[in-house]
Amino acid sequence: SAEGSAKVRPMLASAEGAGEVSETKNPGVQESARIRPSFEGAPSPSSPHPLIPSSRPLTLPAPRASLLGVLLLACLAALAAGEAPLSGAEPPKRWVSLAPSMTEILFDLGAGPEVAGVCAPADAPPEAGRLPVVASHERVDLERIVALRPSACFTAEGMQPPEALLALKRLGVAVHVYPMSSLEDLWACYRDVGRKVGLAERAAGRAEELKARIGLLAARAPKPARPAAVLVGLDPLVAVGGGSYLDGLLSACGLRNVLSARGEPYPQVSLESLAAAGPEVLVYPEGELAAPAL
């Protein structure tokens, strides 16, 4: 380090003829030393070497003197290398998604080739299904995520326990958590994720495009709104409540969420309570309900 090299100079310079020390600049270290050993005489009696008595002459064979200089230079070079990158090239970006919605957003923005890990279920888009699964609802595989050396992780608020995300941060992993309580939250998420992955312009345009499409749906939606329910999980049965962007999407489509009065965005419900709510329209994950169940 710069501090370490500063300590070397007075020790060498205090002995007359023990070596010449001149300062030079190194991009990795603020200050270092270039040492040209020439151990030809004894230390000056007026300025004795701090480690060698002035009464003993310092005599080293030329090969050892050269070796000492090489070793000191090697040590300084190693210190400099530890503080500065070997090249100016940036490491490749690697993103990890800890929520299915984040997986779709990353791929939709064009960052799919840089996604290194995903959250289960990971069936959209199909390319995500070929990536390592490192998380699910309320579960995070810390070891696998750290092993992927991600540039950052992205997740939705409430997807994982806060302590699991805190553990990731303590391990040096950047974690970005986004609220998803409304459609406006979704647009804001698009824009911020785009900025963080270097696709800000694409993200802003995509958010505006989706917002306009939903606006058209809302204008064409039939009145009055039909009662509906959305299921996001089947085992256990998890539905969409109030305070979620899917609740806002139902309203935009001309549907009324029969579970919007629930205090949580994704409540666990029984089949009986769902039937009692009286939905006329049921939205559920594709391919997860067999014909007999329907």
- Note the main sheet: 6 strands, mixed
Average of the residue pLDDT scores = 76
> Could you give the order of strands across the largest sheet?
6-5-4-3-7-8
Helical stretch count? Answer: 9
Q: Supply Rg.
A: 32 Å
The structure class reads alpha/beta
Q: Which term fits the overall shape?
A: globular
Question: How would you describe this structure in keywords?
Answer:
single chain, 294 residues, alpha/beta, 6-stranded mixed beta sheet, 4-stranded mixed beta sheet, 9 helices, 36% helix, globular, disordered N terminus
Kindly describe this structure.
This protein is of the alpha/beta class. Helix content is 36%, strand content 19%. It has helices at 2-13, 62-83, 100-108, 142-147, 162-170, 183-196, 200-220, 245-252, 271-276; strands spanning 20-26, 29-36, 95-97, 115-119, 133-136, 139-140, 152-156, 175-178, 226-234, 237-239, 255-257, 281-283. The strands form 3 sheets. A 6-stranded mixed sheet has the order 6-5-4-3-7-8, sandwiched between helices. It is globular. The relative contact order is 0.07.
SSE layout and pairings?
Layout: H1 2-13, E1 20-26, E2 29-36, H2 62-83, E3 95-97, H3 100-108, E4 115-119, E5 133-136, E6 139-140, H4 142-147, E7 152-156, H5 162-170, E8 175-178, H6 183-196, H7 200-220, E9 226-234, E10 237-239, H8 245-252, E11 255-257, H9 271-276, E12 281-283
Helix pairs in contact: 6-7, 6-8
Question: In summary, what is this structure?
Answer:
The protein has 294 residues and is α/β, with parallel strands linked by helices.
